[in-house]
Automatic annotation (TrEMBL):
Residue ranges annotated for the HTH iclR-type domain, each copy included: 1-60
Swiss-Prot/TrEMBL keywords: DNA-binding, Signal, Transcription, Transcription regulation
GO biological process: negative regulation of DNA-templated transcription
Listed InterPro entries: GAF-like_dom_sf, HTH_MetabolicPath_Reg, Tscrpt_reg_IclR_C, Tscrpt_reg_IclR_N, WH-like_DNA-bd_sf, WH_DNA-bd_sf
Protein name in UniProt: IclR family transcriptional regulator
Molecular function GO terms recorded: DNA binding; DNA-binding transcription factor activity
Domain IclR-ED: 61-245
Lineage start: Bacteria, Pseudomonadati, Pseudomonadota, Betaproteobacteria, Burkholderiales
Length: 260
């Protein structure tokens, strides 16, 4: 199904809470009945649309997605001063990443870019696999154990660089260590010349849906690993506190280690 047509259909239904019929939707979408019917059938099966007789309305999954987007945007707005403080402290690019459990990826929702001539640069909206990124491993380390076990059992560990970790048992050990130490790092696993250092952002109830990353060119990041890890931890702890989380303790930053 065409993504643009899906989005248009959802926008049309959002503008008409009482719902629209198939006959009404066809001219609005400029598409034949068979195409619109197939589109609706797919969205119905996923819960993004619901049907009551001949009327079609937004389904519960549309509202779940909308709430998640609003939440991510609100979190990003709250994170801005912490990201900029970490950027000023570290001199490197600082990123807020949010987990997408259904896609099993993370998305960069806010960026405070380094002012250095040679720097890590990434646009807002970029997605990354969880298994290969410092933020992804931090997020994995704080997920529900059953969800994590299913993820580890089924994820395809596709190499992104020569250093990407592709052994599931080794990944499980790295995730365990990440949870214990309170931070994660990767050196050249997603992009061969980039190092990342990440710490979890806790919601008021202890849930972790986001992480803050300090990212730098590989050689510079490796040389300043402890300082950059500390900058990520400080920013994440500050944002967590702003969200109402009361931390029991903050693990001390340590030296980044190669994981592949």
């Amino acid at each position: 199904m065409s993504l643009s047509r899906v989005l248009t259909l959802l926008r049309l239904l959002a503008a008409q809470p009482a719902g629209l019929t198939l006959a009404q939707l066809c001219p609005m979408l400029g598409a034949p009945k068979t195409s619109v019917h197939a589109l609706l059938r797919g969205l119905l099966s996923e819960g993004y649309v619901q049907r009551d007789g001949v009327m079609h309305r937004l389904g519960p999954q549309s509202f779940v997605l909308g709430a998640a987007l609003v939440s991510a945007r609100s979190l990003a707005a709250m994170a801005v001063p912490f990201l900029h403080a970490a950027q000023a402290r570290s001199g490197e690019t600082v990123v807020l990443a949010v987990i997408d459990r259904s896609a099993r990826t993370l998305t960069y929702v806010e960026v405070a870019e380094s002012q250095q001539l040679v720097r890590y640069s990434v646009p807002v909206g970029t997605t990354r696999p969880l298994y290969a990124t410092s933020a992804g491993r931090v997020l994995l380390a704080h997920q529900d154990p059953a969800w994590l076990a299913e993820y580890l059992r089924t994820v395809e560990l596709r190499p992104l660089t020569a250093k990407t970790l592709t052994d599931q048992r080794q990944l499980a050990r790295v995730i365990k260590r990440t949870r214990e130490q309170g931070w994660g790092s990767t050196l050249g696993e997603v992009t061969s010349d980039v190092a990342g250092f990440a710490a979890p952002v806790f919601e008021h109830d202890g849930r972790v849906d986001a992480a803050i990353i300090v990212a730098a060119p590989l050689d510079r990041g490796r040389a300043a690993a402890q300082r950059l890890t500390a900058a990520a931890q400080e920013a994440a702890a500050g944002l967590s506190k702003a969200l109402g989380y009361a931390a029991r303790h903050s693990p001390a930053p340590g030296k980044a280690r190669e994981t592949a």
